[in-house]
Fold each of these.
Amino acid sequence: MTIDLTAHVRAGDGIWWGQGAAEPFPLVDALLDRLDAIGPVRAFSGLTLNRRFRAELPGELTLTSYGAMGELRAVSDAGRLDVVPAHYSCLPRLFAQRRLPGDIGLIQVSPPGPDGLHSLGIGADYAVAAARYSRVLIAEVNRQMPVTRGTPRIPPGRFAAVVHTDRPLPAVPHRDPDPVDQAIAARVASLVDDGDTLQLGVGSLPMAITDALAGHADLGIHSGLIGDGVLRLVEKGVVTGSRKEIDAGVVVAGTAMGGAALYTGITEAPVKFYGAEYTHAPDVLARLGRLVAVNAALEVDLTGQVGAEAAGGRYLGGIGGQADFSGAAARTGARSIIALRSTAGGVSTIVPALGGPVTTARADVDVVVTEHGVAWLRGVPLAERPARLAAIAAPAHRDRLLRSAHRARPR
């Protein structure tokens, strides 16, 4: 199962690899093991579940990403991560323009199907475009990577080298939703109408939200990322996609992350995987007139600006697809929702001013939801927003927030 990458990778090359459950762990590990022999390289990684990134990285590696997701937080904390601020919809263009490392791609694919071609399985996202522009592709052919619909097929002759594996796709660790998650989820579900098309992520809160939507009908899904909860809604007949303006009857996604049931069930479900040039494209999202974007945040300020990248002096997230979907939902869709717990580590997440950059503009936020309530912001003047947002903060922090709003003037 090992492969010597020194025959294919040269000093100075730019390398990228697939992310999440589609990350080719054996190939990434082989690269890290031989960088002393290869020499300096620049690499691009998305969200990684690979625990190798918790350890000290070889000095020859310069690592770039669109954010500090998963184990990349440890890399960021160590000062070894170069973050490129970019909307997810722009990643294909950045690969095409050679602004991201793209000489060599390390990908995980399915075994060849009846047509002799390989599938990118559950990891289309930026890999579709990055693979198109790579000089060399090296593949992990995993017997347990499902063949999925939608993604371009890749002929075996496109690969400079392959390693064959038979390993389960990694389950995404998360805690079970707690009462706070469930309270937020119930409020979010009340803002979703039958027939709406949803975008949402994975994790404890999105899991609670999908559970809370079990009583809805004819929901659609168009999302960069889907998890176990979406598949359960499909199986229950809640998600049918029958009222979607485009891709009717189909769940559209860029990648999937969850447990074994998701990875095995995805082949029988009406799911198609597409690259970010489709899933996040402004012109595509503009055609979804009933789009409801549900996104998380680290902080929201008293005017409605959203921070999802950094807090407390640490880079913890990224722009990702939040700005793409929130903007589309607010401008041409149904509504843009930001959902978050009112505190994190005892500190209020509703704040007078963000502790990091603005990820999503206040003009692209229709509603903010915490366990304490719903703050409607669409069409609301700046002068009225602080009171609405303070009202959904944790009670212990409300007076302080209102005092700070009184001292400040809307910007």
Amino acid sequence: MKHFIFFLLIPFFMSSQSSLNDAQKLIDMKEFKKAEQLLLAYIKTDQNNLEAIELYGDTYGFQEKWDEAIIQYKKLVDGKPKNANFHYKYGGALGMKALSINKMKALGIIGDVKEAFLNAAELDPKHIEARWALVELYMQLPGIIGGSKSKSLKYAKELEVLSKVDGYLAYGYIYEYDDEPELAEKYYKLAINEGGSLTCYDKLTDLYKNENQPNKAINNLEASGEKHKRNAMHYQIGKVCAEYNIQLDKGEKCLLIYIDNYSAKDGVPKAWAYFRIAQINTFRKNKKEALKWIDKAIADLPKIDVFKEEKMTIQAL
């Protein structure tokens, strides 16, 4: 009899797992609303399935529906309080809600955010994301409500033990946030030497931009391009040249390479490269050439106001 019942249940289990797999595929394809509806129907038949509840919460998170995500992630924490990742997701949703509401209301949930991340870090000594969250949280909070650079450095040190690259990036973040750009530069360079990912290069490039050091930003972008062979780097170099009115020949050359080698995976539409070339020619006082490129940009993306503003600037040359 038991064997008979088991075989009856097999199709149900297979169907259940198939629904969850389908939901995950929808999430991967960014079809979050469809995944939400599928999971809602599923959970009505199996209210205690934590895997389904987690995916359901994820669909809300991707849609930035923080209140709904918090409800689902709280169910995970209550259902399995020793799971570090559940605490991390709960804290993350609370934190995003805090960023979306006024500061006075946010103060009421900051303690819960901190507690969730601390629980995740304590439950899993190797949880990198929770430690990153604590590095950022302690730096961003004012001292009067628990902010602490020393605590941020403590979790950066723990990150360094787990992953040197993450540790160096965390130190760089802390020192950049604390307006110590030389130390931030030192650690971002260490991260590049240790790991060399695009993230490492991007952090250093952004630092140079923020510190108004465009030539250093260009040099770093070129180094990144040599390592990673990404066409998108050509646009980024051209953008810096156009924004800061420096190395205009190099900027134009890079933008033309970007246009010639463009594919959808590059991300930035070609119209923006046309716009940057128009900017470069505006700086050169080459009105005819600037108009040619800005007209191409407007033809591709006619609703972008900054393109129209640039054309007015060119016409006034």
